[in-house]
Amino acid sequence: MKIISVAGARPNFMKIAPLMDAFGAHPDIEPMLVHTGQHYDEKMSDLFFRQLGIPEPDINLEVGSASHAVQTANIMTAFEPICLEEKPDAVLVVGDVNSTIGCGLVASKLGIKLIHVEAGLRSNDMAMPEEINRVLTDRISDFLFVTEPSGVDNLKREGVADEKVFFVGNVMIDTLLKNLEKAKASTIMTDLGLSPREFCTMTMHRPSNVDNPETLGDLLGAIETIQADMPIIFPIHPRTRKNIDAFGMTARVEAMTNLRLVEPLGYLDFLQLNANARCVLTDSGGLQEETTVLGTPCITMRENTERPVTTDIGTNQLVGVDPAAILAAWDKVKAGDYDNRAVPEKWDGHAATRIAEILVQRLA
Ligand code: UD1
Questions:
Q1: pLDDT in tens, 153-171
Q2: Are 261 and 304 in a shared domain?
Q3: What separation in Å is there between the alpha carbon of 15 and the centre of ligand 1?
């Protein structure tokens, strides 16, 4: 049984790694890996392949950056001939990026079974490109593998047949648990001169947060206060760096002496930092889940989350972009209110194995 798995952007790589392992180990699966090239910088892509032991992609579509329409169209145009040539039994896509919907559409229109890993998550905010990608990918998928109970409920509400939906846990957490020990060998803490629980980490790159000068300015206001309390390590995304410069905010950022901008970090270094941070400030999706498993408090600077289990039982606080709300959440972190809460069901390191077993049974 030939399965083409697709990865394109940074958050896909930690999800694809355990799936390639599980597929490679299964006698009945012939795995193939396609990298769309949506992310292409060494630090956004190659580094993750090396650190996570992901096999060299069989094919790289090298689509690169462009507007949403052009990027998605380029992914589709490049992926179609591969499906025609390779005739896979199924195509597997992960997450919610443009590579996910682009390759998903190609497969479903060619009548190839489509597998979506991390199905059913909903922010209910169609202004997010990722929400559009999630909803549409789920609609055309034949196998929907879900990470948390809300995903099952969402798919049921949208009328997806029960037999297509499988609650299997979280492949991204498979990768985290597998690499936790290895990450302890990282020298990043000493390199940056940090002591456990005496610093925060931050990521920020959502268009809704960094493409609008007013919102970005508000967020920087809250960050000014927090960094005065405790150093913040900020591996900055290319999009955010570009906008800070374009909006004339570079001097303001440089004036925050405890906000330490670093290049995008590799998986192991960043895991080691997040495991030791007092708090993680983010607008990412995946980090809300990783911090919940690490027991590290997380402040999510967004109006909504598609991962509600992290706020219901995990260490995550969803606070929006209002500086007062962010600072109130920071006070709760300092008071210890969000340390070590519960880990969601089936986030146990075995999601990819469950997925491989189900696929072999159902596709045979
Ligand atoms: C994409 C995903 C987002 C994910 C994020 C993680 C979509 C719709 N969004 O957003 O869900 O959280 O990846 O990073 O797919 N760039 C580089 N080098 C690279 C890649 C990008 O410099 O290797 C710069 C380019 O200027 C590019 C910009 O980043 O225009 C945005 O890249 P793009 O892939 O369009 O979206 P992300 O913002 O990275």
A1: 999 999 999 999 999 999 9
A2: yes
A3: 17
